[in-house]
Structures are given as C-alpha cells and as structure tokens.
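stage 2 :: seqdesign
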C-alpha cells in the first residue's frame, strides 16, 4: 500500500491500478526514508528468494503450476520427491505458501504475486523442467478425475465429486495441458469417468 501510495504524485489512481494489474512486482518507490531492500516488491521477493535453499527454490517454482490451492498429495506428485512435506512446511514457515483446511484436509495456497514470481523462476529452469512439471500436474489431476469411474458407492462418489468441484481450476488446467499436448487418451479417460 505504501509503495502504491508513493506513486500518487506521478500517476492518478486508475494509472496506478493498471500498472499493478500488469505487473505488481514493478511497483517501487524512491522515497529516501524507505530502506533500499524494501523499495520494490521485486527487491523484497529477490531478497527472500536468496534465503531459500536450492530444493526450496525448485519446490516453490514447481508449485506455481497449481491454480489457487493444492493438497499435499497433489504436491507429492508434482514435486516428485520423498521430502515434499518438509519442503512445503519450510515454504509455509518462510511465508511463501499459506495453509488452509478444507474439512480435515490441509491445503496449500500461494499469493498471486508469489505465483507470478515463481512462474518466472520455473521458466528460467528450462523447457524440460517446465514440461515435466506440467505433465505431472496433468497426470495427477486427470487420474484424480478418472477415479470417479471406479467409485461404486454413492458416498465415495459424492466425496470425489465434491473434491473435483474444489479442484476444478486444477482439473481445467490439466485438461488444457492435455489438449495442447495432444494427449487425447488421458482426456478421454477423465471424460468417461465424468459422464458415467
């Protein structure tokens, strides 16, 4: 808020809002009473990024494939590491991730600014890492949807449908990825499960 308010002499509120919507990490001030390391959101994020170890940096970047929220189980699939729970907890402790509870299940969320910043880090990790991360995300969520087909009891089916509604943004993202990659078999299996 202070960074945005410092722009009021150069820009009107609508211009500030437009700039924030375009790239909030560019928000900065040159006020002399603000320490240099706090003069822009990008600088704050860069400073905090340097405090992460290599595994935490990679885990955060990979988690940017999630839309809005994700479970530890989904993160295990995307991170593909046995120490995923410790990495997630480290990122929560360092304020890169937040946690919420949906019933009894702990879920992780990431602020949009952090997600945008981490997405750039994922891109910097190279096309193969980005591709593999999106593919693991896709595989997890489309398999998740395909579980409906094997759910015979109405209670289990209701539980799965509720979970899918909560994870709809991730399921849609997985479908988009599968379509872009021409993975029609994966899409077909999940559609059959939804239509049965």
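stage 2 :: out
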């Amino acid at each position: 808020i202070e960074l945005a308010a410092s722009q009021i002499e150069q820009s009107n509120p609508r211009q500030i809002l437009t700039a924030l919507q375009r790239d909030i990490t560019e928000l900065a001030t040159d006020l002399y009473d603000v320490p240099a390391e706090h003069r822009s959101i990008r600088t704050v994020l860069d400073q905090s990024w340097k405090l992460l170890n290599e595994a935490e940096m990679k885990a955060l970047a990979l988690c940017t494939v999630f839309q809005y929220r994700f479970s530890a189980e989904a993160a295990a699939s995307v991170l593909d590491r046995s120490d995923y729970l410790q990495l997630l907890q480290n990122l929560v402790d360092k304020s890169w991730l937040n946690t919420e509870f949906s019933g009894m299940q702990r879920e992780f969320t990431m602020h949009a600014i952090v997600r945008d910043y981490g997405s750039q880090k994922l891109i910097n990790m190279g096309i193969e890492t980005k591709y593999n991360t999106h593919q693991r995300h896709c595989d997890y969520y489309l398999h998740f949807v395909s579980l409906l087909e094997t759910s015979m009891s109405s209670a289990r089916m209701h539980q799965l449908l509720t979970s899918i509604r909560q994870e709809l943004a991730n399921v849609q993202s997985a479908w988009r990825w599968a379509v872009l990659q021409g993975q029609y078999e994966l899409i077909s299996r999940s559609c059959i499960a939804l239509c049965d």
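stage 3 :: structure notes
- Residues 127-150 form the longest helix (24 residues).
- The CA atoms of residues 128 and 134 lie 10 Å apart.
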